Amino acid sequence: MSQRLSQIAFSVSDLRRSHQWYQDLFGFTPAGGTESFKGWACSTVQGVPGARTTCWWLLDTQEQFQIELFEYERPESRPLPADWRMCDIGYNLVGIHVPDFDAALQRAMRLNAPLVGDIVGAPGQRRACLRDPDGALLELMEDDPRATNPRLRPSGGERSTVRFITLSVMDLEQSRDFFRNALQMQEAQDVDLHGPEHEALWGLQGAERKSALYWADDILIEVVQYLSPQGRAQPADYRISDLGILNIAFGFRQESELRRVFNRTVNAGAKPNFPVPISVFNWAVMYVNDPQGFSFELLSVRPYYDGQMGFTPKHFDTLVHHQVLIEAPRELIWGVLANHAGIGDWWCYKGKLLKEGQEHPAGVGALRQLTRFGEKVVEEVMTFEPLQRMDYRLISGAPVKFHFGRIDLSTAADGRVFVDYSIRFKAKIPGTQWLMRLIIGGRMKRATKRLKTLCEQRSRDAFGASASRAT
């Protein structure tokens, strides 16, 4: 049996933004997170001096697989170079099968994630590429490489499924040797993942390359060496904490299995970040670096400990949520919500627009300041879909972190407008989560009631004025 791929990890600049973005685009499910990856242990395992990070997990449809998102407090995560290309050396592409290709493209447009290159392929086999909020390249797949040999999955529905990851390497034969001898993986002969036509997806039409494919249980690992154009090496000061795809992890259920693979990788020339795996009884871990410098994580987790390690659905933070039906025109309600300076008409804060957004003063990128009895809060608009949705996040000024607010509008069967308002957050001060939930939830409940009263009154006033003019 092939090694199981259990994680694909990303370094992100804004954990809340990326976490929500992957949920909105692909339907991935939250699986908790941890703030304990810091200090000596984290630095030793990852090989990143002084590492201090928060990690959240997401699930697709597969067993014992997760998307892992790291936001580093330190060291500073440097962005991908502006002139980065698909052929450049590193982990450079993640492929995701989406159950409805056209719907996924529409969601990408709403999330301000335009396509990088062309859509390639006939109906049923279409592919497209886009970048996540930090520039990592993702391929959307209408076809599933597992279609000819389908496998039962524990979770299905409308969620997407990760299908491959691509590594661009300097020496394909050296990589083949490592995968064969250290990881004991055989090349996949039953699938043709990419052809020359697919280079248009990422803007390298006419590129020449050679590659090898490996099934890592249910996910493909594609190892590519570009012959023309040749890939540029990673900077001498590159760290895996830099933004983008961080590494991949092979998963095991027994620590003894991890140690056997660990020893084989070392014997094959890999350099571990510590002489032995670090073991914590229920799980064990170590990162190794292959002869070309690629980071691979080896992770064993006992099945009963999956929930603590992000392999079962769970939220990391607290949700406060209120809904209200408003008998007023949708345009009127949206006008109230999009008036950042006038937010005091229904929230308990006075508002001020500090910075106008893109395409609309209240749109994406808008900054608003909220004040109340000496309290000063700054928030940023992340998503702005007129008459439908607005997302925002806290920038500064409140004793919470990883804040994310969302207001959704829809039309109910009776013609009234359904306003769905939710806020997720984590308290900065340990032990105060319940108190912050009580305070924010109470303010939010009063705000939605005031919003209803205000909008319905303005609607009645407008109707009365219209009736007077008509007579």
CATH hierarchy: architecture of the largest domain:
Roll
Distance between the termini: 82 Å
Computed CA radius of gyration, to the nearest angstrom:
25 Å
Helix content: 10-25%
Principal-axis shape equals globular
Name the structural class.
Answer: alpha+beta
Beta-strand residue fraction: 35-45%
Could you please describe the fold and organization of this structure?
This protein has helices spanning 15-26, 39-46, 101-110, 172-181, 255-267, 330-337, 433-470; strands at 4-11, 29-34, 52-59, 66-74, 90-97, 127-131, 137-141, 161-168, 208-216, 219-228, 244-252, 271-272, 278-279, 283-289, 295-301, 318-326, 350-355, 367-372, 375-385, 389-396, 400-411, 417-427. By secondary structure, the chain is an alpha+beta fold. The chain has two domains: 4-309, 2,3-Dihydroxybiphenyl 1,2-Dioxygenase, domain 1, CATH 3.10.180; 318-470, Alpha-D-Glucose-1,6-Bisphosphate, Chain A, domain 4, CATH 3.30.530. Strands 1, 2, 3, 4, 11, 12, 13, 14 and 15 form a nine-stranded mixed β-sheet that branches. A seven-stranded antiparallel β-sheet has the order 16-22-21-20-19-18-17. Strands 6-7-5-8-10-9 form a six-stranded mixed β-sheet, covered by helices on one side. It is globular and about 80 Å long. It starts with a strand and ends with a helix.
